[in-house]
Fold:
Amino acid sequence: MRGAHGVAESLRAPGERAWSVRIRREGWARPDGQTRETRRTPPRYLVNGEPIDRMAEGTVAILEGFRATAERGAPPLVPVRAAVAASLVGVAGARSLAKGSQPVPVPDVAGR
Structure:
């Protein structure tokens, strides 16, 4: 995903590093002119102290969040605006791929 200030992408690496994301802030978008790159790997998702298979983590987290909302009235795990924005990124990514990886704008749903 390329934005106005940099890029974020999966590392496409084997093993545990497959879940890592590279975030690069371009020098032209920083006051000091220096490019900054970080890599982040999310911690393992645990249920009852036991790690969940990486392929199931997202599903388990969403189901646990839904259950907490339904049973205890907890706020949604992901706020509605953030969920819509994330969905739009996926739609824009699919459109970009269909157009040979051409840039596709993502609508702003910030509600400002």
